[in-house]
Amino acid sequence: MRVTVFGIGYVGLVQAAVLADVGHDVFCVDINAEKIEGLKAGNIPIFEPDLDGLVERNLKEGRLHFTTDAKAGVLHAAIQFIAVGTPPDEDGSADLKYVTAVARTIAQHMDRPQVIVNKSTVPVGTADLVAEVVGRTLAEAGRQIGFEVVSNPEFLKEGSAVADCMRPDRIIVGTSSKDAEMLLRQLYAPFNRNHEKMIVMDARSAELTKYAANAMLATKISFMNEMAGIADRLGADIEWVRKGIGSDPRIGYSFIYPGIGYGGSCFPKDVQALIRTAEKAGVTPTVLSAVEERNTAQKQVLFDKIAQYFGSELKGKTFALWGLAFKPNTDDMREAPSRVIMEALWNAGAKVRAYDPEAMHETARIYGVRSDLDLVGTREEALKGADALIIATEWKVFQSADFETIKAQLKHPVIFDGRNIYDPAFMQAQGFDYFAIGRGERRKAS
Length: 446
Prior knowledge:
Layout: E1 2-6, H1 10-21, E2 25-29, H2 33-40, H3 51-60, E3 64-67, H4 70-76, E4 79-82, H5 97-109, E5 114-118, H6 126-140, E6 147-151, H7 161-166, E7 171-174, H8 178-187, E8 198-201, H9 203-234, H10 238-246, H11 267-280, H12 286-298, H13 301-310, E9 318-322, H14 337-347, E10 351-355, H15 360-367, E11 373-375, H16 379-383, E12 388-391, H17 396-399, H18 403-409, E13 414-417, H19 424-429, E14 433-435
Parallel strand pairs: 1-2, 1-4, 2-3, 4-5, 5-6, 7-8, 9-10, 9-12, 10-11, 12-13, 13-14
């Protein structure tokens, strides 16, 4: 089948590459000419495991095409995916200007009936808005061409997006059109062979399903972070609590790891957007508001522990920071807790020596050259001259550390672990003051 994807960001690129890999002929359209030329040369603008090989293979085999020519993209296919960004507006609601711009572009160039698929994460009612924009644009041009607008939200996790796209646990399709449904069934047939994964519903329910899924996962994370704060004050260990409640099949182990808050491009933005949607509909989003409030506060918890340990003596100190990306296996630093920690340290007059396996270039892009930030090439180099070690991302390379080297390099044998990757008793036995999340308020060496 011929498919066109507008918006070659994280979602659009992964979806396009995976569709091409199962045999479809995919045009990728983006207004960023530099990005498109880079992709034609096989340069992937984001880090995502297995994505580079996928793009390279399908480029070589002629099933994946990159262009800035919107007209060529529209004329290529009868299925048009909209996968552009929906950044938060000033009030936290989703900004749909890119979505509506693509809708107009499709309408301006379409010369046959089209199925327009909303892949972007969009508020409830966006399918209706896109249909209105397309219909109005066609009417203004005096043309009558049939079209359907379908909601088909993505459920990809950064760090495993290719695998999630190749082996989806569900395929949500929001449409009342049988013809559009059958076309989407044909498109997704390679991913739907083992058992029925497609769930067909109305477009508004599909749009809300995406937000509800992310809000539920964000709620689980925030709940555990709140429990961690309680555990700290009561002298309990949240890791035992996690194992105790996770063994209940009604709860499960997923997304109940305590830490220093969620980040990335999805959870913060989507929770805020759903809050604004609810408020506009006259509903008070009590739980969602609490989730957002807890997450904002959680990103400050590790700095508070640092300030408590060193008192007001942070000025002039240097902190080694392991981990910059908001989660492992990505270079994404959007809403990353590491940014809150670094900025709080800088405001207190401290310096940061930071290392991340993938997010160094992104950090340099965001912050530029600063006298209070050193970006170094290895985890060991980050330790040199540092007063303490902070862990902000649970990369596997940090989980098997050389504690003798850490202790020898640090001016103070203290670790602030925002991801609970070490065992407190072991760390104390190694002679470290060890402060984690929800593992007892003070874990000092004997």
